[in-house]
Amino acid sequence: MRHSRSINHLGRTSSHRKAMLSNMATSLILHKRITTTTAKAKALKTYVEPLITKAKEDSTHSRRVAFSFLKDKSAVSELFREVSPKIGERPGGYTRILKTGNRIGDNAEMCILELVDFNEAMLGHAESTKTKTTRRKRPAKKKEEAVTGKGADVKAEKTGKSVKAEKVEKAEEPVKNEEDAPAAEEAEEGK
Predict the structure, then answer these.
(1) Does the CA dihedral 5-51-44-112 come out positive or negative?
(2) What is the mean pLDDT of residues 74-98?
(3) Which residues fall within 8 angstroms of residue 29, CB to CB, at 6 or more apart?
(4) Same domain, 75 and 108
(5) Residue 28 and residue 92 in one domain
(6) Does the pLDDT of residue 142 top 70, yes or no?
(7) What is the pLDDT of residue 151?
(8) Percent of all residues in the chain with a pLDDT value above 90, rounded to a whole number
């Protein structure tokens, strides 16, 4: 029985496990996301999140502590220059695990482990989401309301003319062709 055994040994010796987690943490800091098995990702999460918390305070001591875990100067400088300013206000939860399915070869459960504040796709999606509004069917307007309704009032206010004056102007439009003029006058007299 595994009572009170919280550490996943990942089938490795202590030195092998520490070296593997150090290398994975370096890759995560440099590349901002890595693909690995879910068991390794959960172990790495407990390894790297205290380091990121330590990086919030930029001092010689905290840099040396981070270097003792990572064993890579470029990863330490990346952690303190780029990662820590972005996560300064966040109180924890610096990484995210996204499950991607099982690996073809051995059916191991795979996932993507990423730093939360560095995924532009998710940040952009979160900002662009709109509140959902209910869609209601509006009753159809009658033809008379369409002519003398709010739209006509607004149009009349803008132009300074009433709707009836516009109708009269349309009726009195001059005929463009001189040949059609007598025919138009006859048509009006016939009415």
Answers:
(1) positive
(2) 94
(3) 48, 70, 75, 78, 79, 83, 115
(4) yes
(5) yes
(6) no
(7) 54
(8) 57
In a domain, 2, yes or no: no
| Long-range pairs, 34-38, Cβ under 8 A, ≥24 | 34/112, 34/113, 34/114, 35/100, 35/110, 35/111, 35/112, 35/113, 36/110, 36/111, 36/113, 37/103, 37/108, 37/109, 37/110, 37/111, 38/97, 38/99, 38/109, 38/110, 38/111
| Range of the structural domain that residue 156 is part of | 143-190
Residue 81 confidence (pLDDT):
95
Distance in angstroms (rounded) separating the CA atoms of residues 191 and 103: 85
Taking 90 as the threshold, does the pLDDT of residue 56 lie above it? Answer: yes
Give the span between the Cα atoms of 65 and 112, in whole angstroms: 26
70 and 150 together in one domain: no
Q: Do both 91 and 37 map to the same domain?
A: yes
What does the mean pLDDT of the chain come to? 82
Distance of alpha carbon 67 from alpha carbon 78, whole angstroms: 12
| pLDDT tens by residue, 130-141 | 566 677 777 766
Please say which residue of 120, 152, 167 terminates a domain.
Answer: 120
Token pair for residue 160?
């300074």
Structurally, how many domains does the chain consist of?
Answer: 2
